[in-house]
């Protein structure tokens, strides 16, 4: 954030007297070196900063502090997911050049965090009653100013009473010894009885696997049954979005195999949460810290960007895509509409399944594209599979709208050598699984999309689909028909028809399970 | 808790200096009090720096107005967020960004906007 797009000389500091509130932490230091962001007086209310204990989470990074009336570890600029807290208050004309550069750099930096989201949660100051605060808990365990009765007051019975009877050093040792079992109960801390009995560390990576393995102790004597029961209780409490209390040991295994690396501990609420970015990327949450959680290119290749701009312009332009509020089309037996402005995607299937076919019938699917959840699933009921709108939504983006996503900050671009008279551009959209890398074959004169190489789901290779014709809808020109040479000579064709630019959507389109979009 | 910046002598009335051609071509939505000097200052500066800048009035802002922006810059003083909510607990808590579960835009939270949003969404950031 201090380097691009505007280089800030972080060595151009000035010495100022160490603020009073910093002197305890920086004992003996008369002055501290700071980077001035204002040459003038600045505003009366100069900003907001937060404690170091607040800035803990897989998706959190801190860029800098600022001179303030609290501790030197308080954060002034920090990020949680797609939110950049820029705590400095001045308006642009109150900043000096460094301050303005930092503001612009902050905007450019956060623009690439298109998939990351806040993971950890915290009690709000608006919630009734004081919360079990990690900040105050850390203070009680470390500060010479802390009193044993205050530490004891943070614990529920019987622990509070036991701690209250000890000297501070003994009390801290008592707490530290049981720290692996620390748990939040209402507004107080406690030590979880099951965790103490099983001897597991609830905050340690691998604890979920340890507990899942204990579920298999059922039937191995009274002790095994008891351990399994304790493990089951802990799993239900310890995972914010787990598979449910009654899940079988086998299903816990399946659930965990897909998510184990993506689990991260929420220090604020003392639960393990699935890091959605790690899960989506198939990466370990522990490996995704700071800028590694951004999408797109840190430095975009100029030639690739120029070609991308040509493609975007040919297909209608970024502004026209911004102006698209709603869209409707049909492919095969499926009608769909995308309420882009409200982030909802609806599919209606008018097809019927032949009697001898075992496919899952479905009629209506509604997918919330912003929350990434299905509001109405097709198919089912269990044990028959359900139909999600997620895959259909992304297919629409990856096919029809791909040329219009190229210049978005989260898109990765790479220029490849020309082939078959076309210029070639490798593209990965933000929020897609890493294997979803496309190669666009572009007309060098016009910027029109001639073909797309789509990744195969099975063999790691790619299949080329030729683009035939355009859907001219409003100011947009979208690929109309994708053709692939089939293995048996018969071409595979995917065609989008009946497209509509900003159509008025029927009432109930966001929730109704009835067919609203018309027949084929 | 307030940040105190190092201060000097002169308030610059024109914001220029850095070269806008170095900036990525972003579409910015600035959400704030557009009628105030501060709001106007932000919009003017951002328009000097970025390809497209929409000014959106915070008091009437809804998330639908911000869906197409690459980055949303939110300016929201404490006095119109947590302080007002704590003074009057029955007061309607208007959040210009809507629900956390449906908020997908990269966002810069200026000054106390981070405090207000953290309080509204139960996120870290309220302990200063």
Based on the model shown, name its key terms.
heterodimer; A: 520 residues; outer membrane lipoprotein receptor (LolB), chain A; three-stranded antiparallel β-sheet; 13 helices; B: 128 residues; alpha/beta; 3 helices; disordered N terminus
Counting DSSP H or I runs of 4 or more residues, the number of helices of chain A is 13
CATH class of the largest domain in chain A: Mainly Beta
Mean pLDDT of chain B: 87
Distance N to C terminus of chain A: 52 Å
Structural class of chain B comes to alpha/beta
- Structural class of chain A, by secondary structure, is alpha+beta
Overall pLDDT confidence of chain A: 92
Please give the domain count of chain A.
Answer: 3
Give the CATH topology of the largest domain in chain A.
Answer: outer membrane lipoprotein receptor (LolB), chain A
Please give the share of residues in helix of chain B. Answer: 10-25%
Structure explained in plain terms:
The complex is a heterodimer of chains A (520) and B (128). In chain A, helix 7 (207-214) runs antiparallel to helix 9 (249-259). The mean pLDDT of chain A is 92. A twelve-stranded antiparallel sheet of chain A has the order 14-13-12-11-10-23-22-21-20-19-18-17, covered by helices on one side. In chain A, strand 22 and strand 23 (492-501) form a beta hairpin. Chain A is 24% helix and 24% strand. Chain A has three domains: 14-110, no CATH class; 134-287, no CATH class; 302-501, outer membrane lipoprotein receptor (LolB), chain A, CATH 2.50.20. By secondary structure, chain A is of the alpha+beta class. Helices cover 22% and strands 16% of the residues of chain B. In chain B, strands 2-1-3-4 form a four-stranded parallel sheet, sandwiched between helices. Chain B has 128 residues and is α/β, with parallel strands linked by helices. Chain B contains three helices and four strands. Residues 1-16 of chain B have low confidence and may be disordered. At the A-B interface, strand 5, helix 1 and helix 12 of A face helix 1, helix 2, strand 4 and helix 3 of B. Strand 5 of chain A pairs parallel with strand 4 (107-110) of chain B.
């Amino acid at each position: 954030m201090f380097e691009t797009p505007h280089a800030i000389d972080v060595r151009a500091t000035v010495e100022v007297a160490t603020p009073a509130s910093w002197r305890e932490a920086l004992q003996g230091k008369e002055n501290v070196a700071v980077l001035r962001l204002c040459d003038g007086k600045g505003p009366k209310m100069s900003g907001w900063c937060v404690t170091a204990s607040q800035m803990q989470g897989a998706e959190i990074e801190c860029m800098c502090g600022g001179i303030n009336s609290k501790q030197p570890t308080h954060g002034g600029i920090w990020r949680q997911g797609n939110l950049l807290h820029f705590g400095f208050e001045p308006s642009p004309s109150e900043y000096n050049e460094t301050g303005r550069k930092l503001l612009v750099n902050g905007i450019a930096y956060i623009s690439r965090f298109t998939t990351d989201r806040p993971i950890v949660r915290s009690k709000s100051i608006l919630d009734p009653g004081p919360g079990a605060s990690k900040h105050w808990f850390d203070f009680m365990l470390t500060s010479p100013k802390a009193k044993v009765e205050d530490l004891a007051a943070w614990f529920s019975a019987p622990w509070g009473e036991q701690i209250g009877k000890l000297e501070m050093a003994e009390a801290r040792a008592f707490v530290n010894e049981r720290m692996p079992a620390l748990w939040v109960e209402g507004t107080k801390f406690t030590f979880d009885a099951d965790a103490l009995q099983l001897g597991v560390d609830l905050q340690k990576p691998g604890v979920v696997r340890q507990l899942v393995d204990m579920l298999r102790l059922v039937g191995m004597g009274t002790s095994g049954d008891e351990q399994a029961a304790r493990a089951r209780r802990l799993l239900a409490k310890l995972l914010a979005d787990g598979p449910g209390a009654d899940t079988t040991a086998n299903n816990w295994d399946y659930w965990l195999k897909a998510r184990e690396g993506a689990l991260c501990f929420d220090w604020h609420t003392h639960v393990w949460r699935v890091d959605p970015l790690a899960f989506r990327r198939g990466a370990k949450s522990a490996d995704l810290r700071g800028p590694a959680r951004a999408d797109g290119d840190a430095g975009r290749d100029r030639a690739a960007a120029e070609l991308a701009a040509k493609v975007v312009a040919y297909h209608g332009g970024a502004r026209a895509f911004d102006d698209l509020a709603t869209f409707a089309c049909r492919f095969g037996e499926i009608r769909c509409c995308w309420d882009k402005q409200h982030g909802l995607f609806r599919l209606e299937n008018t097809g019927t399944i032949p009697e001898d076919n075992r496919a899952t019938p479905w009629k209506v699917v509604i997918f919330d594209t912003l929350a990434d959840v299905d509001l109405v699933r097709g198919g089912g009921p269990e044990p028959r599979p359900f139909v999600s709108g997620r895959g259909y939504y992304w297919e629409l983006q990856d096919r029809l709208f791909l040329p219009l996503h190229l210049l978005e900050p989260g898109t990765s671009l790479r220029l490849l050598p020309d082939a078959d008279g076309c210029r070639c551009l490798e593209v990965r959209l933000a929020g897609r699984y890493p294997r979803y890398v496309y190669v666009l074959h572009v007309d060098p004169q016009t910027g029109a999309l001639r073909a797309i190489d789509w990744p195969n789901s099975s063999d790691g290779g790619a299949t080329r689909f030729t683009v035939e014709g355009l859907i001219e809808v409003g100011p947009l020109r979208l690929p109309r028909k994708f053709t692939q040479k089939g293995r048996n000579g018969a071409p595979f064709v995917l065609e989008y028809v009946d497209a509509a630019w900003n159509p008025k959507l029927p009432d109930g389109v966001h929730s109704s399970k009835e067919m609203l979009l018309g027949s084929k | 808790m307030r940040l105190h910046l190092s201060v000097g002598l002169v308030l610059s009335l024109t914001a220029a200096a850095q070269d806008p051609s170095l900036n990525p071509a972003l579409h910015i939505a600035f959400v704030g009090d557009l009628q105030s000097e501060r709001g106007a200052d932000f919009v003017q500066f951002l328009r000097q720096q970025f390809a497209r800048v929409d000014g959106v009035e915070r008091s009437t802002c809804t998330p639908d107005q911000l869906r197409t922006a690459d980055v949303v810059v939110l300016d929201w003083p404490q006095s119109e967020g947590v302080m007002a909510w704590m003074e009057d607990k029955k007061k309607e808590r208007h959040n210009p960004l809507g629900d956390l579960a449906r908020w997908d835009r990269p966002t810069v939270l200026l000054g106390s906007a981070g405090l207000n949003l953290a309080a509204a969404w139960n996120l870290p950031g309220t302990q200063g």
